[in-house]
Amino acid sequence: MSNLDRQATPSVCGGRGFVVAEPVRELLSPRRVTLGESTEVRRLLPNLGRRMVGAWCFVDHYGPDDIADQPGMQVPPHPHMGLQTVSWLHEGEVLHRDSLGSLQTIRPKELGLMTSGRAISHSEESPRPHARFLHGAQLWVALPDSHRHVEPHFQHHPELPVVTAPGFTATLILGEIDGAASPGTTYTPIVGADLALARGAEVSLPLEPDFEYAVLSMSGEAHVDGVPVLPGSMLYLGCGRSELPLRAESDAALMLLGGEPFEEELVMWWNFIGRSQADIEQARRDWMKGSRFGEVKGYDGGRLAAPELPPVPLKPRGRVR
């Protein structure tokens, strides 16, 4: 999914200087952003208070939206570099097209994982016809310098491993939990999991003390380490945890995001992640002149134009404002 903000501002992130080394409970509120023709999302990362969780650098939560009489998601062809996109649905479908020729419908609890590497472009849309409701999350993972120029590729994994306990199911999106491992390709130590809790369930989820974590609430009422987390909000948890207590007041769905703190400092602007202003400027020039990022075929409409670069220098700094 694209960042469609026409006044795109640079986000500087990465580095260990602002990693919280001990457990914390920092509730992050979303910023509402309109994507395409009719989709409004709640943006949790980058946030006014925090830009990354491990290598996770971008989190949008959308829906549940009733799109029975609407076109639904319509995101025209747009570019990416230096990152992976993770498409995750609870309801509805998203049709993915990219400049490699991939054409894939992604359905609930299926992993759509696109590694942009040096350059790729793609579009996302609700199929015609489509389901009545659309509800999901779109996330980005920053690629480390050693892999940010890899050849672009797309993976679709309709079957993912699960970990279960009474009243609890964890579906592995990326990384590992409790011996279960996702088939999705990763380039840094990272974890992403979809957590489903039945009403009244109480569980303690095993964690890696060296990872930093956050939990996004997708639906329902749940307490994360004693903190109520409402749908569309995210609780940052810091590092130093070996387990995470969860309690559901109703049937609830959460997403666990974590990983080793990302050491490198990044510049993230629009749909590009680089290491310098020169990286971003070159990517914008290449996209605007139609080179490097390829062509998405089959989308009914034009591609997105890049916004103007800000007048201030783009410099990588820390993880929080």
UniProtKB/TrEMBL annotation:
<dbReference type="InterPro" id="IPR011051">
    <property type="entry name" value="RmlC_Cupin_sf"/>
</dbReference>
<dbReference type="InterPro" id="IPR012093">
    <property type="entry name" value="Pirin"/>
</dbReference>
<feature type="domain" description="Pirin C-terminal">
    <location>
        <begin position="193"/>
        <end position="292"/>
    </location>
</feature>
<protein>
    <submittedName>
        <fullName>Pirin family protein</fullName>
    </submittedName>
</protein>
<dbReference type="InterPro" id="IPR014710">
    <property type="entry name" value="RmlC-like_jellyroll"/>
</dbReference>
<dbReference type="Pfam" id="PF05726">
    <property type="entry name" value="Pirin_C"/>
</dbReference>
<dbReference type="Pfam" id="PF02678">
    <property type="entry name" value="Pirin"/>
</dbReference>
<dbReference type="InterPro" id="IPR003829">
    <property type="entry name" value="Pirin_N_dom"/>
</dbReference>
<dbReference type="InterPro" id="IPR008778">
    <property type="entry name" value="Pirin_C_dom"/>
</dbReference>
<comment type="similarity">
    <text>Belongs to the pirin family.</text>
</comment>
<feature type="domain" description="Pirin N-terminal">
    <location>
        <begin position="41"/>
        <end position="141"/>
    </location>
</feature>
